[in-house]
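Reagents: none. Just compute today. Sodium/proline symporter.
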Amino acid sequence: MNIYELISIGLYMVLMILIGLYSYRKSTSNSEEFLIGGRKMGAAVTALSAGAADMSGWLLMGLPGAMYLSGLSSAWIAIGLTIGAFLNYVLVAPRLRVYTEVARNAITLPVFFENRFHDKTQLLKLVSSVLILVFFTLYTSAGMVSGGRLFESAFGMDYYTGLFATTFVVVLYTFLGGFLAVSLTDFVQGTIMVTALLIVPIVVVAQIGGLDTTLSIIDTKNSNYLNLLRGTTTVSVISLLAWGLGYFGQPHILVRFMAIEHVRDIRKARRIGISWMIFTVSGAMLVGLFGIAYLQKFDVETMVVFDASKEKSETIFIYLARILFHPLIGGFLLSAILAAVMSTISSQLLVTSSSMTEDIYKTFFNKQATPQSMLFMSRLSVLIVAVVALVLSLNPQDSILNLVGNAWAGFGAAFGPLIILSLLWKRTTALAGLLGMLVGGAVVLLWVYLPHEYKELYEIIPGFLSSFLTIVVVSVITKPVSAEIKDEFEQVRKIANEAGK
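Predicted 3D structure written out:
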């Protein structure tokens, strides 16, 4: 690693720790502050935090690499995600913010499910919290692996050095400042990401000699690169667009909506968040697309290497950041990848520890826990989850990584329909929610692991539809909900609608 790159990365990590120390002074009185920021997040922090927590290293490596190899036809997944994020802000965010407070101040999704349906069996909370605990621990482990691999591939450092450096910084600021630290670092990380993804393609075009020249070179190499439908089928396009369905069921994104200070701020957060998303995904796609023209014109030898390897093509952002900028600036741009990785790890780490503390420890082991003991357990849970995830990261197995690769679909199918219907349809019942959650998750797993001829269809589609239909059918045939639940639902609907005007 160049000394200037090392300085930039080091300064970035120090900044993250300083934010953790600042947040420690602001969020230490109880577990509600630690796990959800006391519901005091502003619109801008909410928006960029949700975006940064969502994207991970895929935004700066996976998407540019796909665009480099396939051209515009890789844009469908970005289109689907943007539509899904927008609908999440419109359909879910306002009502979830209001309902979690009306439902006896629920600060986690499992507690919200239990309170929303007045579920005295506690099965809804138990099943959903176990799903979060297991899959997000694996998810967190995969993020740690990504951090180690980033240091290994981008900076030429040992995998374990990168793994421990990434884990240490993320765990430290999450342990110290909880949700506030995670949200503020996400805000900074999101700013770094969008800045990097806007700067690089602009400089590439300037180096090549203008946009027309850039597009002409791309078209000369392969005219299909600028074809949005190149190599696609109806099923593949639908599958890529369906990635947007996952947003409705992602706990680490939904918790941002629960933490915003005022429901009326949701509209402002939506404008900021969707604008950020459009700029970042567009910038990421242009990095890969314009990278084709840059290599074609200036570095054919490297182009041959990138054309032959998906793994190499995913480093196109790293290559351009290093070749076009002074190492000090290049190091700042490369820190955007680390920011994407860290923001996702910290969010998943906090959600997992909150499930362990609020949904399992308080419910089944210490119902009379004091605010101080809950705060202690929250921080202890961060350490426990981090240690387990780190151990899994030491020798990553394909089976674990493959499972985590399907977690987006699993959460989207298991939680997404239940979130939507619990907020928009008062007739939804607790039994229907429980069965829908189990059916959605099961269908995703069966679709992935059982042999069949429809593998091209993304598993979230059958999982989401199965869960949605199960909830509707079971709700219709079971006992109607109580008048108390109907009153709560109407109260939430009126407040959310009023705030949306």
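The mean pLDDT is 90.
Action item: order primers for follow-up constructs.
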